[in-house]
Specification:
This protein is an alpha+beta fold and 186 residues long. The chain has 2 domains: 103 residues, Ribosome-recycling factor (Topoisomerase I, Chain A, domain 4, Orthogonal Bundle); 68 residues, Gyrase A, domain 2, CATH 3.30.1360.40. The protein is 58% helix and 16% strand. The chain contains 4 helices and 6 strands, in the order αββββαββαα. A 4-stranded antiparallel β-sheet has the order 3-4-6-5. Helix 1 packs parallel to helix 4. It is elongated. The termini are far apart.
């Protein structure tokens, strides 16, 4: 493995960490409706558990209401039950074929709790990035030990990996601040 390979691998893995973190942030609900909130809810479809998005059309009616339109007539009750039993604290209501899922307003205390959750998730993402930096630096030291790189190359590469790490952590901080502002906005 060359120095370029090590840096490229670290960069790719850090980008994946950010994508994973963005996915985690989407699961944390704010006061606004977001169709992605129902992504983790599964419904029984002829004996197998599938995400709601595979058996119904999930869209927004307004800023605080998600609409779920089942593709088959008999799925409405099952979808409604799955949403109600999920740990999201949502209470769906049927209107014929359409299921409306109103988003309850968040209390001030719940908003503060959610910001703590966002910060902890951000810290976990930072730890993952720092672990990637450590792995890259260990690989660079191994190249130096095996005499496949000079000390100057190894030092320069470690500095570049550190700059990449700093950039990635800065991006995570921006995402955390944005999500906190979103949660605290009434």
């Amino acid at each position: 493995m060359t120095i370029a390979d090590i840096k490229k691998t670290a960069e790719t893995k850090m980008a994946k960490s950010i994508e994973s973190f963005k996915g985690e942030l989407q699961k944390i609900r704010t006061g606004r409706a977001h169709p992605g909130i129902l992504d983790q809810v599964s419904v029984d479809y002829y004996g197998s558990m599938v995400p709601i998005s595979q058996v119904a059309n999930v869209s927004l009616l307004d800023a605080r209401t998600i609409s779920v339109q089942p593709w088959e007539k008999g799925m409405g009750a099952k979808i409604e039950k799955a949403i109600r039993e999920s740990d999201l604290g949502l209470n769906p209501a049927s209107q014929g074929d359409l299921i409306r899922v109103p988003m309850p307003a968040l209390t001030e205390e719940r908003r503060r709790d959610l910001t703590k959750v966002v910060r902890n998730t951000g810290e976990d993402a930072k730890v993952a990035v720092r672990n990637l930096r450590r792995d890259a630096n260990e690989q660079l030291k191994k190249l130096l030990k095996d005499k496949l790189a000079t000390e100057d190359e190894e030092r320069r590469s470690q500095d570049e990996v550190q700059k990449l790490t700093d950039r990635t952590i800065g991006e995570i901080d921006k995402l955390v601040q944005g999500k906190e502002a979103d949660i605290l906005a009434v």
